[in-house]
């Protein structure tokens, strides 16, 4: 497509929106992630000589086009919601203003990064909330989708609520806390379980979590662990615990808790890890299983239950004269029709600081003031009156200017804190796992009108696929 | 764990097996992939000074251990089934012989690469067979799990039957054929659909697949496409086609076929792409939809329906004296108990070259000869008599020796050819999507006996978690 635009000298300034159409996991919200890695990727995007050699070797590309690629950099402006924002279907998450060729080039890169990290941050938030804001450890490296699938997942999981990762490369590259554990092979490498436990405690006396299900959890496992736990306690060490990785975790964790308490180890923690997800964690907590640490791997990093976010990147405006003309794709499937024009997003809060609705308006409209605000629900087409005490702030903020980062990079722990604060503020009926209420994403009267006008004029009365002039 | 082994000077030579316990996607088989990338990763594995600086900064590691890591290389031997082999649950896919510390270090790396690529190669094979060995194009970059998730998926999808990928980086790095297409934004960048089609045809006259659902598939879309298709045909060009990306593909493809044929374009191809997977492709073919090219993205590269392979890596033997002692983990959950000892895998074929059963024996047993062979099914514990005309060859072959690649690297197209030949040879009842028959994976009498002996001796009569001496 780039070669085609170059050949025909079709390269207007355009605006693309990124948004998704369906909430992942059947949930009521998503957590946006991937903005910072995207900025890094766009800043450094270029074609190296070896890339051009390869493209030339395919026989698909003309020399004059390849010569252009040597100099190509992404020089656009990008607007985005803040990393870690709680977001909803059909609202603009990112907006790219660039020459068509550049805007088109970055489509797959942008969707690849933001779709995946948003999916995992959302899954992490669901799991984190299911633990009751407990200690969630991400243990997914071995089942993640390739080395980078693991690294990106560790980052997104941390934003969404994980306290630490077992992936030390993620610790090194991204500054995420790391947390390790022992495997069954440790136990099997020693003459017996008690010796294996003691040897581990010698090396890690203050973070000693013993895996007790290698041979017989409620037999040798808990007995040997208690021996070592008491030895550590007598030595003045803290942080002792046990881990369960198989079996029925409700009766096992209860019995293990009872044994630990009887042995004077009531401060010992119980960790679990066995194909957990938000559903099974919710059930364990509802059954009163006394669990302190949640190790989640596969379902967290592979987004068990919904392995892809349906994020798309659509042309919404094209330069015309000194301004922009709104554009939309009309589809046979109304759900695939996108909102036209350059848009801004506002979040309306109630008096307690809880979000009540999102409001999308054209950027050219004057920003909403405090007081009453007429808006339309695109699903039921009904007008609503929104009340807002203070004028809401625009949520899409510039993050790149002419291809360069615009504004400060935020440390990841601050992003995480802000994300968790936003999750807590979310109404319970939107947050819940089962059958959540749809959070209202409303549009301004002007945006609705623009959409209606384009719907009537596209594909054009001649039936020849001619959009509105 | 490595630090613990180093501290206690516990570093015997050991053997680990990689295997999976459950066939992915509820299917009857899997396609092994990731062996070659794993070899590359193991050959180059080392800790760089910046890695050691990071590990030191965590405060978790002792200086004498970090000093050892400077020199650490993977020096083990690796045995594996050939890349692209059709494989089954509970049989050894890889066997690693190494010092315990090295064998432990590579666990997550090995599982990360082989689990993911095997999962995607398997999904690709399912989809490829569902198309009736048609032309499958992998279009997954935008929904894959990160940039490398896409690249690894393109590789594995190609092994499993995809003819090409839309990911040009995969083309460059791996030599996979690339195949592009136009997006709706191309259509929207021109004054009308016909102009957009004509402009595309000018640039790609011999690979012109036009997307016809932007405005009205059976109205302007097919009409404008036929105009351009006839212009190309008159100009002597070939390779023309149309693509459908929305709507009910059965009636749409039939009507589009009829229109193309009536217009004298019976050689024009119909491509489809709309959240396809093996199930929907099977339904489309069963309904007689006249489709020539299948573009599959999300469900292929994210392994829709089953986002992780349950591959594990388990200690099976430990050096003792001049030999090895078999080791097994006994679990409260019998399904999590693994087969002990150093094992070899043999595939038994019938007279027509179709695989009938796999047979696992201890490496120390004399290899099976032609004729009758007694074997046991671990599921129903029954003895079976296998007949084999010729002595079966050992399937696990050495691929690394003392940390270096052993043997030639196979070009990817050859791997793909061999994979597709193996898939075709698979009995229909094992290959089918719905309710496949379990392919027999049997064990030798000696292996069964070893397992029984260890089951009785682990965890030891004293109940203190003491394995067999």
- For the biggest β-sheet of chain A, the strand order reads 13-12-1-5-3-18-19
* Helix coverage percent of chain A: 25-40%
Distance between the termini of chain A: 23 Å
Structural class of chain A: alpha/beta
Q: In DSSP terms, counting alpha (H) and pi (I) runs of 4 or more, how many helices of chain A?
A: 17
For the biggest sheet of chain A, the summary is: 7 strands, antiparallel
Q: List unreliable stretches of 5+ residues of chain A.
A: none
Mean pLDDT figure of chain A: 93
The largest contact between protein chains, plus residue counts on each side, is: A-B, 104 and 103 residues
Coarse morphology of chain A: globular
Cα-atom Rg of chain A, whole angstroms? Answer: 26 Å
Number of strands of chain A: 20
How much of the polypeptide of chain A forms β-strand, as a percent range? Answer: 15-25%
């Amino acid at each position: 497509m780039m070669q085609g635009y170059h050949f025909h000298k079709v390269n207007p300034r355009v605006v693309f929106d990124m948004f998704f159409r369906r909430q992942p996991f059947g949930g009521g919200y998503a957590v946006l992630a991937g903005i910072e890695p995207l900025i890094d990727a766009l800043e450094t995007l270029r074609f190296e000589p070896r890339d051009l050699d390869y493209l030339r070797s395919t026989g698909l590309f003309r020399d004059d086009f390849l010569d252009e690629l040597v100099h190509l950099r992404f020089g656009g402006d990008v607007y985005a919601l803040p990393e870690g924002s709680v977001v909803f279907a059909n609202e603009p998450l990112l907006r790219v203003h660039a020459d068509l060729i550049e805007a088109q080039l970055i489509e797959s890169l942008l969707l690849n990064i933001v779709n995946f990290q948003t999916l995992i941050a959302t899954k992490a938030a669901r799991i984190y909330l299911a633990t009751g804001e407990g200690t969630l450890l991400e243990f997914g490296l071995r089942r993640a989708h390739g080395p980078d699938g693991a690294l990106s997942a560790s980052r997104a999981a941390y934003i969404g609520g994980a306290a630490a990762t077992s992936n030390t490369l993620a610790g090194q590259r991204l500054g995420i806390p790391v947390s390790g554990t022992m495997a069954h092979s440790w136990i099997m490498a020693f003459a017996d379980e008690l010796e294996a436990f003691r040897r581990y405690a010698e090396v890690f006396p203050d973070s000693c979590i013993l895996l007790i299900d290698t041979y017989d959890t409620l037999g040798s496992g808990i007995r040997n662990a208690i021996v070592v736990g008491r030895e550590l306690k007598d030595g003045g060490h803290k942080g002792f615990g046990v881990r369960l990785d198989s079996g029925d975790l409700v009766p096992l964790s209860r019995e293990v808790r009872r044994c630990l308490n009887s042995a004077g180890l009531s401060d010992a923690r119980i960790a679990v890890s066995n194909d957990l997800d938000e559903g099974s964690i919710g059930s364990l907590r509802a059954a009163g299983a006394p669990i302190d640490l949640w190790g989640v791997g596969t379902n967290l990093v592979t987004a068990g239950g919904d392995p892809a976010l349906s994020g798309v990147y659509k042309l919404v405006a094209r330069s015309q004269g000194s301004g922009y003309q709104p554009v939309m794709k009309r589809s046979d499937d109304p759900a695939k029709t996108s909102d036209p024009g350059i848009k801004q997003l506002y979040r309306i809060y109630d008096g307690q600081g809880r979000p009540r609705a999102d409001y999308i308006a054209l950027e050219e409209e004057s920003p909403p003031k405090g007081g009453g605000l007429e808006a339309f629900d695109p699903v039921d087409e009904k007008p609503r009156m929104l009340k807002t005490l203070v004028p809401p702030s625009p949520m899409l903020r510039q993050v790149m200017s002419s291809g360069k980062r615009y504004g400060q990079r935020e440390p990841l722990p601050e992003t995480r804190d802000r994300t968790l604060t936003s999750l807590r503020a979310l109404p319970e009926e939107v947050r819940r796992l089962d059958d959540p209420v749809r959070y209202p994403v409303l549009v301004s009267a002007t945006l609705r009108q623009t959409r209606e006008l384009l719907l009537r004029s596209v594909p054009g009365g001649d039936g020849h696929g001619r959009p509105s002039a």
